[in-house]
Write a structure and sequence with these properties.
By secondary structure, the chain is mainly alpha-helical. The protein has six helices and two strands, in the order ααααββαα. α1 (6-29) runs parallel beside α5 (130-156) and α3 packs antiparallel against α5.
């Protein structure tokens, strides 16, 4: 790798990982019906519906990535506590919030340059390099994507369609991958 392009490669890798998380969550959400999307799993206080996790992620995305390089990542108009209240009017509203959040992510990430990775940004006044802030959000969205997938699997039970290698399918998958990517 060209040393002068390391940052570009890091950002491209992060973008690919964010896109992968998005696809994974969407793969789970599309399997849920409208009721399941908005239902809180059994277990009581602290559990969130998939729709509420989406609302929180979208609120975080808008706050963190809007004017990413020039303003604090915790915007003054963000009401984080309200993100945990399901006041969506429809599934379409859930999907719209999701889309708007991801639009903010990619609009901020894709134009970043090598020189900007060391630039300092703040989140709630705490200083982070751009690279640190990107990793912080990648970790945060991974956590919530896991919640979305786990909640969907819980609701769907036997109806769940695997988003990765199915149980018992590892050997066949590995052979397929070796055939597609021979070392030579």
């Amino acid at each position: 790798m060209n040393e002068g392009r390391t940052g570009t490669a890091v950002i491209a890798s992060a973008v690919a990982q964010f896109r992968s998380l998005r696809r994974l969550a969407e793969g789970a959400m599309t399997q849920l019906d409208d009721r399941e999307l908005r239902e809180v799993p059994a277990g009581g206080a602290g559990n969130n519906s998939v729709a509420v996790v989406v609302k929180h992620m979208a609120g975080n995305m808008r706050s963190r990535w809007t004017d990413f390089l020039t303003t604090d990542g915790e915007k003054p108009d963000r009401n984080r506590d309200q993100e945990f209240v399901d006041d969506f009017e429809s599934r379409a509203a859930v999907e719209q919030a999701w889309e708007q959040g991801w639009t903010c992510v990619f609009a901020a990430l894709e134009p970043l340059t090598d020189d900007q990775l060391g630039q300092i940004v703040t989140i709630r006044g705490e200083a982070h390099s751009v690279l640190e802030a990107v990793h912080r959000q990648l970790t945060h969205y991974s956590y919530h994507t896991g919640q979305i997938v786990s909640t969907a699997r819980w609701f769907l039970g036997e109806r769940w369609q695997s988003l990765s290698i199915s149980r018992g399918g590892s050997e066949a998958y590995n052979a397929e991958m070796r055939d597609q990517h021979p070392r030579g």
